[in-house]
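Pasting two entries for a bug report.
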Amino acid sequence: MDVLSDVLTATRVTGGVSGRLTARAPWGLHFDEGGAANFHILVRGSCWLRRDGADPVLLQEGDVTLLPSAGRYTAASDPDAVAEPFVRVLAGHDDARSVSVGGTGTETVIVCGVYDFAGDLGHPLLSALPRFVHLPAIATRGGPVDTTAQLVAAELDQPGPGGPQVTGHLLDVLLIYILRAWWQQNGDTSSGWFGALRDPEIGRALTLMHEAPGRRWTVERLAHAVGLSRAAFARRFAVLAGEPPLAYLTRWRMTTAAILLRDDNEPLSVIADRVGYESEFAFARTFRRVHGQPPGRYRTMARRTDPRSQPSGQSAGQGAAVGPGAAVGPGAAVGPGG
């Protein structure tokens, strides 16, 4: 079981290229909070990116960034450049997929867009990431992040038949490579979910929970399965994962249950059993505590509001929606943060 793939599938991460920003110095753009994670590929030139409350970071040609959580930030040719609201700039362009700003100086080209992590299926993966993931070109040159980023840019330069599908799949791959690269660079010192996944015993326990969320796990059984005493296992799991093992298990069970409710037509009693509850009442009570509504209502609302939700046996379209209020394809907003 690949736990990272399991989590990304469960949280229904979808990516969409908003488009291309071409900027000539001097220039500066300010972006308000959005509803999704932002990514940037510096195709040419350089720029400064600054999140509120943080020092500006110089991005250079070939760099790739990921901002996992929504938040205000500024992109500019110089740290002190005057930044105008991006929404105002966008209003003056007929084609929102290609925006040009600035003066007559050095040119910078950025491919940018969003990743939508389904908000109701949050996971410690997101909180484990820093507010700003920066992968410099010098660290990724010739590797999978660099190669995939170049393919994304090339697809925008010369789109062909099936273009949206191609870019959608490339962005799925790019996200995994970004997470891998960040993990390889920071895994030994990272805390939280990534640190737990790297630990041999705790990582194995996470795998067991993901493989069989419906098994009647106890702390003792998990500890025995990974070769630790109950006390040592519980202590190490809580330190690394940031919560007790059964709290993580409950949350993962409720995430799994939400997926089943969203995508399958099985009765609640069957879903309850599949995620480890002998009693449908106990399952419904826990589900309501975690998701804020009973399972039946959740199923109805999820299928009504999420166009990607389909009954079992059907598949949702790739990249059907990207973030609250954002769309992929003609008319989608462009710019760092989309």
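Entry 2 (this is the one that rendered wrong in the viewer):
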Amino acid sequence: MLRLRAGWVHPVTAPPIPDGAVLIDERGLIAAVGPDHAVPRPSNAQPLEFPDGALVPGLVNCHTHLELSQFAGQVQSDEFPEWIRQLRALKDRTPPEDFRRGAEQGVRDCWAAGVTCVADTGSTGAALEALHALGGRGIVYQEVFGPDPSHCDTSMAGLTAAVDRLGHYASVRLRVGVSPHAPYTVSEPLYRAVAEFARAERLPIAVHIAESREETEFVGEGLGPFADALRARGIAVEPRGLSPIEYLARLGVYASSSCLCIHCVQVDDHDVERLRAEGAAIAHCPRSNRAHAHGVAPLADFRSAGVRVGLGTDSVVSTGDVNLWGDAIAAGLNGEDALRMLSLEGARALGLESQIGSLDVGKQADLAVFPLTVLDRLRPSSTVLPALFVTVAGRVVHG
């Protein structure tokens, strides 16, 4: 058992508590939360005190690529399609053990940043292996690619084999999902097949969608650099006359299972309403969107429409780190609103709000302690300090 006392405790579902405490039981669950004088002091509970700390729920990073952690600063291009091409070439010449090391470092970097749950997307399975080995929490979406409709069966065979292999790492804290990458790398038959597979196996699904202007041009008009690249490979491209969001709706992707839509920058009011009606959630990655000059996603519109939204850092290749507070700053959030988005709203976006995301009795004890001033320093010029102490399900993983 652990008993944590802090200068301030921020439950998220209740007002902040000055000189508060949290008791964690032997099952790794929150047993009590409140003012220090009101929280029990069992003799078998290890007391830890952070008088200059803010104790908050562990942060939820709704979009990472942890297997790419070793590639920070190695891909340089102002053109998004070229940036993707360079990253793909870099991955193709990287041995499997490097992905495993990168993913393990990525998990530890997340913990150091106060992140206790990730929604990770990758093609190698390294992130799930690392989270399993280190005792982390998250959903890992296995990527699948295949823009050529004639290769649909081959892509699905690879996906089902990968999901079967990775399923051995699944646990109460780790889930396996699937991720048909993006409209310019996934054919219509493959989208439909993955959606049906996810529905049949009850797997969560994640998609990169409505991220760039080039993607919108590709889907709507069948033009642009993505279309040119596919035609150069002998793959036919037809204009759909739809937005990327509407395109996936027509293919039944949102109805397949719990669906996480990553980015959603190039959207209009109809797209926002479609996402709400479909019950999809969004991983909002403002720093990544800015780094690639994609534009600004309408976060306020998503929230006012009732769409579930969490924040994600994307890969360190895009943003350089897994500091979620930086994305809160980039999203224009501050104080308790920022904390709520980084914790409970992120958990809701992943369907995990009954387990994590707030300091409530009975929830998993995923906690982080930051310097006391963390919620006062969310300004564009500020540098958010790393976490002082972090637990996942009551187990100390940092600090």
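Dev reply: Rendering is fixed now. As a check, the viewer should reflect this: The radius of gyration is 21 Å.
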